[in-house]
Amino acid sequence: MKNNTETKKLMLGNEAIARGLYEAGCRFVSSYPGTPSTEISEYAAKYDEIYAEWAPNEKVALEAALGAAVAGGRSFCAMKHVGLNVAADPLFITAYTGINAGMVITVADDPGMHSSQNEQDSRRYAAAAKLPMLEPCDSGEALSFTKTAYELSEKYDVPFLIRMTTRVAHSQSLVPVSSREEVPVRDYEKNAPKYVMMPGYARPKHKVAEDRLKALAELADNENSGLNKIISGSDEIGVIASGIAFDYAIEALGDKASYLKLGMIHPMPEKLIRKFASSVKRLIVIEELDDIYETYVKSLGIKCEGKSIFPRTGEFSHALVKKLILGEENETLSVSEQLPGRPPVLCPGCPHRGLFYTLKKLKLTVLGDIGCYTLGAVAPLSAMDTTFCMGASVSSIHGFTKIRPEAAKNTVAVIGDSTFMHSGITGLVNITYNKGISTVMILDNSITGMTGHQQNPCTGFTLKNEPVTGILPEKICEAAGISKEHIRIADPGDPAALEKVIKEELACDEPSVIIARRPCMLLKKVVKDSVCVIESDKCKNCRMCMKIGCPCICISKTTGTPVIDTTLCTGCGLCEKMCKFDAISTHKKA
Amino acid sequence: MTKNIMIVGVGGQGSLLASRIIGNAALAAGYDVKVSEVHGMAQRGGSVVTYVRYGDKVESPVICEGEADVVLSFEILEAARWISYLRKGGRLITSTQEINPMPVIAGTCEYPAKLEEKLRALGIDLTAVDAVKLAEEAGSSKAANVVLIGCLAKSCDFSKEELYDAMKACVPSKLLGINEKAFKLGHES
């Protein structure tokens, strides 16, 4: 049976949430970019009716959205899983204060770590923070759950969490769309016992939070709510699953199983689970990452299988479910030899390339951070020692050099402009306030790059592309206590000059900041009208040009010497600077 | 019966556009559709995989090994890398373009030789096309993805017209001329 395509659009899960915000009368969005959540706020910003902003970090974003909700406007905040770690402080308090107008918070997990530093299971936050959590299984539910979340948020006076994972966020499926509900701004009334969380007021709010969870648990048990549902098939196998794991399960097992599909994943529906468990012969929980549902089911004294079958790591698929439950696997073809991997690398013309080559040449220890520049760790540059989390480069170099003071002469922290604004400033204050002597490098490429090019406080534009005065990192460094003569601006496109500045600042016994400033090559404003060419008669095949790991330069199969792919080359000229034989020159494109 | 088209290539080659064209063709033809994309790091020249699934009701948005009815590849090493996803009797359409990955550039391994021959030796339905050359004939090497869509249009569930219309709806109007030519050249190859 074919669908009526007039009422449905093919939409990314993230786009569908933004559409849900629009249709639910949301007025305020504040977020920080983070794969796989970024597109939600980008799509929301396209609606004139929604005010949408990039905040410097997720804690600020969530607090801004909380302020908006308390003021009486429906608000929203989105982040990736590790971003919720940053926003955890305000998150936890909202179960106590409640809100005024509805508030929805989306957290996007990344099982399989397609682009993250861990695969934490953010479902745990719901229980820890005593907040309700919904999990959609496709774009259609992403939209409808968003709208339902606002109604319920206002009814139960609590923010609702919506949990996404990469495959739901970044898959497109069909979504019915409708019009926007105009929701007026609610009145704001002073209510200190509700909002001022000092102990005298906060103690009774804990009980409010616990009682609310009981009421929400009744909602979870209500099959008419449209959130949790039992889908009947064979009673041989009963599957409990939510989100993408449900999609994989039903694709693999079809009517060979019955399903308790969870849409509200906290609180859990005790009565529904008991009812479902007693109707099937073999109960299996299919959940990626942690054994949260399995542990809950077992706590009810109900027998079930979960992690005895399925892994705790990585993402699943319907093939995995078929293999582990039915023992079925497809025959597959393969080419017999080992194939070279194809990891992501710095783009042709990237300003970070010259910088990391210089750090490697100087044999420095590099405490890195999160961004495109994390790719400085990839061979042949291989110029990074650590990457923990946002802002950790600046904080950790201080601890590192307190234990190893001699390391201050050959260790740098490397952080991007957006990451610095996110959580590097406080680390820098720690260095100056606590008498550190570290050298910090801020890689200012005028954009938040890795997440797909977003504006940030340094770029001079807002999420809605409105011009605003850009904040200069060098002014922040001065205000944070770095002396003016040790705040240096250098061009990573001129490695010789950059090297000189790095050596000078490492040698001194004061904290320094070097701002390596050159825009991202992918930005439209960067002129890309040249290419570099290797003149074969001058080339000595020394392969110095290849040490920078530029994807445009490879060894020609015919000559055995380096050659530049002019369709990829952006004419940055770094290779030209590497060549000691003047064999490389830069030319304007024809 | 759900059909599976898998698109593989190198970040920046335009596989997202190709998946949108096929997805839109499936939508216009009245099917339920799910398309799975890879964002973020993919632009940085990494291996990129996109899945398009269509049928009466599609549940999982991913394609697993041995399930792809068609693998459409923009680069031949990627075709070899993902060949296990092709089902028995499935069709591989690949550009003959070779893009060196960083381990080859860094000198730690070699780009495999004779990949087209090795793939043919597997006894699969293989169409190899110099998509970049045809795209340059059409006016831009960046249109190689549309050349491959034109090639796909020779035999798939969608008519040439359905894929062509979907392509027109997805490309910017100022680039329509080049893309129309690229589609035609792919279809005639």
Description:
The complex is a heterodimer of chains A (590) and B (189). Chain A has 590 residues and is of the alpha/beta class. Chain A has four domains: 8-221, Rossmann fold (3-Layer(aba) Sandwich), CATH 3.40.50; 225-326, Rossmann fold; 351-517, Rossmann fold (3-Layer(aba) Sandwich), CATH 3.40.50; 530-588, Alpha-Beta Plaits (2-Layer Sandwich), CATH 3.30.70.20. Helix content of chain A is 35%, strand content 18%. The longest helix of chain A has 23 residues, at 199-221. The N and C termini of chain A lie far apart (54 Å). Chain B has one domain (3-131, 148-170): Pyruvate-ferredoxin Oxidoreductase, domain 3 (3-Layer(aba) Sandwich), CATH 3.40.920. In chain B, helix 1 (15-28) packs across helix 7 (160-170), helix 5 (131-138) packs across helix 8 and helix 7 packs antiparallel against helix 8 (176-188). Chains A and B meet through strand 8 and helix 11 of A and helix 1, strand 2, helix 2, strand 5 and helix 3 of B. Strand 8 of chain A pairs antiparallel with strand 2 of chain B, so a sheet runs across the interface.
List the helices and strands and how they pair.
The complex is a heterodimer of chains A (590) and B (189).
Chain A: E1 8-12, H1 13-23, E2 28-31, H2 38-45, E3 51-54, H3 58-71, E4 75-80, H4 81-86, H5 88-97, E5 103-109, H6 123-129, E6 133-134, H7 139-156, E7 160-165, H8 166-169, E8 171-176, H9 192-195, H10 199-221, E9 229-231, E10 237-242, H11 243-253, E11 258-262, E12 264-266, H12 270-277, E13 282-285, H13 292-299, H14 318-326, H15 351-361, E14 365-368, E15 386-387, H16 392-403, E16 411-416, H17 417-423, H18 425-433, E17 439-444, H19 473-479, E18 487-490, H20 495-507, E19 512-517, E20 530-534, E21 553-555, E22 562-564, H21 574-578, E23 584-588
Parallel strand pairs in A: 2-3, 2-4, 4-5, 5-7, 6-7, 10-11, 10-13, 14-15, 14-16, 16-17, 17-19, 18-19
Antiparallel strand pairs in A: 1-8, 6-12, 9-11, 20-23, 21-22
Helix pairs in contact in A: 1-2, 1-7, 3-5, 11-14, 15-20, 16-18
Chain B: E1 3-10, H1 15-28, E2 32-36, E3 47-55, E4 68-73, H2 76-81, E5 86-95, H3 102-105, H4 115-120, E6 125-129, H5 131-138, H6 144-152, H7 160-170, H8 176-188
Parallel strand pairs in B: 1-4, 4-5, 5-6
Antiparallel strand pairs in B: 1-3, 2-3
